[in-house]
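# nightly structure sweep
# worker-07 picked up a monomer target from the shared queue
# config: single-sequence mode, recycle default, output format = structure tokens
# input follows
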Amino acid sequence: MSGELVIIGDVITLDPVRPRVTAVAIVNGRIAATGSPADARAAVPAGTPEVTVSGTIIPGFVDSHVHLLWAGRRASRVSLTGATSIAEVQQRIRAHALANPGDGWIEADDDLDPWDLAENRLPTAAELETAAPGRGVLLDRRGHDALVNTTALHRAGITSATPDPPGGRIDRDPNGEPTGLLVEHPAVALARAVIPPPSGADHHRWIENGQRELLAHGITTAMDPAVSTAELSAYADAARAGTLQLRVTAMPLGSETTTFADLDRAAETCGLETADPHLLVRGPTKLFLDGGGSLGTALLSTPWPTHPTPPASPEPTPAAGPSPAEPAPLPTSTLTPSSATPSSGVVEPLGVGPSQPSAAEPGPVDPAYSEPVSCGVVEHSDYHGNQTLSREVVLAHCREAALAGRGAGVHAVGDAAIDLVLDVLGEVDAVTPVAGLGFHLIHAYLGPSPDAMRRARDLGVRVSAHPALQWDFGLGLIDRLGEDRAAAANPLRSWLDAGVEVGGGSDGPGPPMAPLHGMWQARTRHVRGRETPLGPEQAITAPEALELFTTGAARITGGPGTGRLRPGDPADLAFLTGDPLTPDPDTLRSLTVTATMVNGRLVFERPDFQQTTTTQPTTQPADPEPADPERAGPERVDRAAVDPAAADSMLVDVGSVVPEQVASQGAATGMSGAGTVAGGWVSPGRRVWGWAVSGRAVLGTVGDVAGG
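# output follows
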């Protein structure tokens, strides 16, 4: 499928004027027409191939928050998915080490949680060491925390004397020895700093692997957050080489030491601005403000409840770690942010390379900063969560982004973090309006207040929400916060009812990346390991769930015309085995993506993709009457003004309407140019069907149409 094409089938367009049609026409990678087969045929030359497909066709899915590169690198890492005990974790690491001999690091990107393991705790550094003696092991947990083995601690120089870095924490046993759990990005950075960086070939391979997986889920546009300079360069290379097959909005990572000016220099250095802008664009700045809900580190306005959490080391030997009866004491020092010093210009994710804050040079104390939670028992009741950036740094990044006409996506899980972001954006908005610039809250799922929702709506701040996260760690939220507060998490219904624009994402590859899964969870509120829904009052409707992962997410990623199918929009389509708007949400679990199209080109196809190809006759009637279900009557347009630069795709203005008369062919003139027109029909939805402009049939949205 490429070039000029007519596709016939059941089509959901997400266009409010014509929400459901039976055919689409594609010309040069863009939608030329939607409507009946006759409408579509009128928009393309005679002899254009026609494809009839089964199932349902929808706009390509858009994921507003997915780590594409992380998804691509999983093939080279040990898989811990489905592991049910520490012994099984050790066995998988041991098998990976045998299959990949040498002294290279062993890493995993799966979200290992204590409630998934029979021991109801995480493995220690010593236990990980026995699985791969002498080799560094790092198991990432949702991009926030990590588990490392004894060799990794030694290589990173992490000992009992190592201070906690600002915004992070080294978990310790009662004797003060590191347990192997590194909490939040600055602590994980201590270990990542001694891991050899991936090569350019690695990045290109990960892009290829990651996009293949996303395309198989019907995703045609993806926002990849917190990418490094090297990753930006790899994306730009792929876009220039023509190997990038889906649209990517890349979010560079800002930090205490990486300024907005640094991000500008990085984009220029890696050639991002010279890449194909239809496939790769620089997105909003990514900022991390707090931790995670299931990790117990999100920034809350009220203290985290006092409750036991799984220890990071086994019972009963105190030297190996705390037992539930003897919790590890929390450090008494107050975390402080690093001072905002000029950057070297090297932009890497927080946790990699020279942009890391130095624990030896703390900056002024921010009263909102707090210690991250221990893996023992939380004994004090004044812990509110972890703030990883100072208010001043968040304000500086957002102010500079707004002045440059760009936005920022701020990771803010807890209600206190959400309020802080909205306070900052209110201050920025007083000088530079932030609406429409790409500012959005990322996650925003723990206790946002009605006032916060109102402020977000009034400021034009969007929310990137991720139903798969609740599916993934709903039980963990219940464990940490109790049933009621966990049920209120990820309040999609409330956000939408407040008038806030919400876009869907997966935050994969940890949580499931399939938008169909996210839609199902958003409609049912089911969570992993639990039979009954969690917070069903926050469920959304079928149309809202589809919009979440199409038009809603597209507003956040910034791709013009993506997430819908209207004349002039990119021809990005996903072909499904059935209707995603089915009244029974559980039907979504049985639907599959059979093919995916980007820019009118088929980039993914399953063996069971059913299509029948035919070819139109080489001649067509001069003025075929379309079967337009919206047409109120035989109204004809007698003259039109068209844009010559877009004469093959869009009608931009219409003069008068002459009911029941056929317009004569001739030269139409108007303020936007001139072109040769024939005749057409105007529907109540102000669309015109069947026009012939300079010998080419066109469809498009019209302006003021008398009687239309």
